[in-house]
Write a structure and sequence with these properties.
alpha/beta; six-stranded mixed sheet; elongated; about 425 residues
Length: about 425
């Protein structure tokens, strides 16, 4: 009850197949539950996180998570929430994606102990089933009319849906049935778009296991108060892979959450206790300029996904950019911090006279303006003020021989790249 009450307070429960039955189940026993992701890419993004973090909450209350990455379903394609057919991936690409995503998810869950997470790949059992067995042993239990009534399928009938994607809901139902039999898995958690797939699994379990009882729960779609899509920025999705989204960018995404969204995100994504979140909510209302809630959110999420060292790095970059003191940062941190600033490329062998670079990069409007900017002390190179009109961007001014950070005025940053 404590767990379900906490989930309700956080606003995490969207739908349940049997609310009273679930309460009774969790009061009586420690259960195994599962959540899955298809490896359509080599990294998850933050839009995938909430169901897995919800399963982590169950683990913290003594239940065992089964974490599924769909090496089989990833080769088929889930029609849920899609207006058109997905492009099919090669077997090799799916295999690589599975390993990458499993490594990301292993960081979230406790792996050892009685309630240690079990990592599974549905290719291990789906891949062994031949076509005749699929049709005879599973297909006969799922009616076509039943499938056509599913929103994920009915919404695609006008535009078209292949038999491949049409069968997806049966394949996912087979996953639930397999995990029920092998791990006594009695609960599936998924996003709100997975309701149809989850209920198909419950139907298959009931028919193939003598009226056995299992449960499903979905999580609400995460939205932003301003109507824009959660987890997206101008530069794209916020990935868990540090190579795709640096820890600094990851930190900044959460730190820049609006006052309207930040408390909801604290409830959804962090494991802070209720009293701590209530205090942060008060801070948003009484002293929003301190951004204490945003800071706590960014710290909790960056630490969880990237670790303490990466969090400290993100905080150093943030502090340096706020103060303008870039000398405290190494070249790797500077690359992270200035990844999205305007950039200009200079040939490596070219003699890069500062005045010329300021004009050619559009930092100053003319050579006359460039000279005035330098003379007036408005130009900084890698954090140091430059007042020499004959300065050349060479030697130590080229960090790692690859780039130079130029600042004009208080906040206008540019990156000069050498190629």
């Amino acid at each position: 009850m404590e767990l379900l009450n906490d989930l309700a307070w956080r606003g995490i429960i969207y739908q349940q197949t049997d609310e009273e039955g679930m309460k009774d189940l969790l009061e009586k026993e420690s259960v195994s539950l599962y959540c899955g992701a298809d490896p359509t890419g080599d990294s998850l993004h933050i839009g995938h996180l909430l169901p897995f973090l919800t399963m982590k909450r169950f683990q913290n209350h003594g239940h065992r998570p089964v974490v599924l990455v769909g090496g089989a379903t990833g080769q088929i394609g889930d029609p849920s929430g899609k207006k058109e057919e997905r492009s099919l991936l090669t077997t090799e690409q799916v295999e690589y994606n599975v390993k990458s995503i499993q490594a990301q998810l292993e960081k979230i869950f406790a792996i050892s102990g009685k309630t240690g997470a079990v990592m599974v790949n549905n290719l291990d059992w789906i891949g062994k089933i031949d076509m005749i067995s699929f049709l005879r042993d599973y297909g006969k239990y799922v009616g076509v009319n039943y499938m056509l009534a599913k929103d994920t399928i009915s919404s695609r009938l006008e535009t078209g849906i292949s038999f491949t994607e049409f069968t997806y809901t049966i394949i996912q139902a087979m996953d639930f049935n397999h995990l029920y039999r092998e791990f006594d898995c009695k609960l599936q958690i998924g996003g709100s778009d997975q309701w149809g797939n989850i209920t198909t699994g419950l139907e298959l379990i009931r028919k193939m296991n003598h009226e056995a009882k299992a449960f499903g729960m979905t999580i609400p779609l995460v939205t932003k108060a301003d109507g824009t899509k959660f987890g997206k920025t101008e530069s794209g999705a916020i990935w868990l892979d540090a190579e795709k989204t640096s820890p600094y960018e990851f930190y900044q995404f959460w730190f820049n959450a609006s006052d309207e969204d930040v408390v909801k995100y604290l409830k959804f994504f962090t494991f802070l206790e209720r009293d701590a979140i209530i205090e942060l909510e008060k801070s948003v209302q009484t002293e929003p300029h301190l951004r204490a809630a945003q800071k706590a959110l960014a710290e909790e999420m960056t630490r969880m996904i990237h670790g303490e060292e990466a969090l400290e790095e993100a905080q150093r970059i943030t502090a340096a950019l706020f103060s303008g003191d870039l000398k405290t940062l190494n070249s790797t941190e500077l690359k992270q911090g200035f990844k999205d600033v305007p950039a200009h490329t200079v040939e490596k062998e070219e003699s890069a006279l500062l005045i010329d670079v300021l004009v050619n990069a559009g930092i100053s409007s003319s050579k006359r303006q460039a000279r005035e900017d330098v003379t007036n002390g408005a130009v900084y190179i890698n954090g140091d003020r430059i007042t020499d009109l004959d300065a050349v961007l060479e030697g130590d001014l080229r960090l790692d021989g690859e780039f130079t950070i130029v600042r004009r005025g208080k906040k206008k940053y540019f990156m000069i790249r050498y190629a």
